[in-house]
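We modelled the chain as a single entity of 352 amino acids. Its sequence is:
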Amino acid sequence: MDEVAKSHSISERTVRNWRRQFNLAEQELGEGFVGLIPKISARGNRESRLDPATSSLIELTLEEHYLNKKSPPLSHAYGLFLHACEKSEIPAVSLKTFSSFAKRIDTAKKVRARSGDKAAYQHESGSNKGRKMPWDLSGQFAMDVVHTDHTQLDIELVSSKNGLGLGRPWLTLFLDGFSRKPVGFAILYDPPSYRSLMIGIRQMVKSTGYFPASFVVDGGKEFQSVYFETLVASKGSSIQKREGKPRQGALIERYFGSVTSQLVDRLQGNTQPTKNVRQMSRDMNPKRSAIWTLESLHSALDSFLGLYSSSDHPALGCSPEYQFERSMARDGARTIRKVEYNTDFTILTCPP
């Protein structure tokens, strides 16, 4: 071993240290090679050499003169820091060191103090884990929590009578949070309103026979309508609002993305070319190539929802349909939530 060390220009002292570390690790851990692993992260002096008073003053200056609504530049706070150091006879630091303290501040906290909550929301963790919410996003069983929202589909439609362009339709979707199964939808040309909600709820009850215990909605005016609130109250259900928290609607927003990428973007007349209007030629205008009608799109979407429900979902490990049926068998039919689709229910969901 000494010959090998000499041939590689390794000193005897280094070899002795290696042997000592090897023997020590073999005695304590039963494996000597562990002791030869370099502990680079433990090298050097890890303690700050700054005066504690300087560190405290840096943090105080950043808190008062950098993290505020005026959004001043860091150089402004540094200038005030130098003035405070001179006045208090505290050792100052360079701008580079001062900047390193500013970089350690949590990005979400920094943006919230300087730009507001909405801007900071983009820098917060995307996970809902650990967040206090007034409801369970997924629910405890099928038809416990149903998410509903609207989106304008990226496709131009034409009239089934004369072929004239009628524009882009609006999709209203109802998604069961527990099973991720779409339980109802409505497609209309009209913007979101209580009418689209009533049509979707009719289809939901007709296909499942149940009325959910709770709806998760955003702050749209249609969800605050007298007709929707009256219907929900008459069935003993509740409405949970997720105003200002887009990620709390991630379940249904993600599904809208699936509908767009897996169905709408593959149909003739989709509006993808309009994303770069300056580069779009006349023959690529979706208004000129549109062939789908509202009826045909409704049928295609109905088939897509059925295919989606029967396909494995990565978050569930099974299909939404299987998860839905298993919940019904395991958690019980819950007759209190059953609603018969009859004339009375049709009248109740038929506001003027």
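As a brief sanity check on the tokenised model: Residues 8 and 123 are 51 Å apart (CA to CA). The first helix runs from residue 2 to 7.
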